[in-house]
């Protein structure tokens, strides 16, 4: 039987691989590493979060201060905005009571 086109049939000569042969070899390698298909044993995965035990003896004081100062600043802005809104309400309430025909 003759060798398929693109291949040399001699035992010692190099075989030229077709693209589908290369893909099949890559899939076999990936299956060996459990990278192909769904599964519970993925080898090369990384997480953006690092799991470690909490160290309660050395708290992150910078993070604590940042959290509390941010909270305090937001509350201060809330009270300031509320006071401005109340003053605007009072001003519009007084303006609506004024029934002068010459002003409007």
From TrEMBL:
PANTHER family: NADH DEHYDROGENASE [UBIQUINONE] 1 SUBUNIT C1, MITOCHONDRIAL (PTHR17097:SF0), NADH-UBIQUINONE OXIDOREDUCTASE KFYI SUBUNIT (PTHR17097). It comes from Aythya fuligula. It comes from the Eukaryota. Keywords: Electron transport, Membrane, Mitochondrion, Mitochondrion inner membrane, Respiratory chain, Transit peptide, Transmembrane, Transmembrane helix, Transport. The keyword Transmembrane helix applies. The chain crosses the membrane at residues 61-79. It is found in: Mitochondrion inner membrane. Belongs to the complex I NDUFC1 subunit family. This is NADH dehydrogenase [ubiquinone] 1 subunit C1, mitochondrial. One of its GO terms (cellular component) is mitochondrial inner membrane. Signal peptide: none annotated. The gene is NDUFC1. Accessory subunit of the mitochondrial membrane respiratory chain NADH dehydrogenase (Complex I), that is believed not to be involved in catalysis. Complex I functions in the transfer of electrons from NADH to the respiratory chain. The immediate electron acceptor for the enzyme is believed to be ubiquinone. InterPro entries: NDUFC1. Its main location: mitochondrion. It is a single-pass membrane protein. The keyword Electron transport applies. Complex I is composed of 45 different subunits. The lineage of its organism: Eukaryota, Metazoa, Chordata, Craniata, Vertebrata.
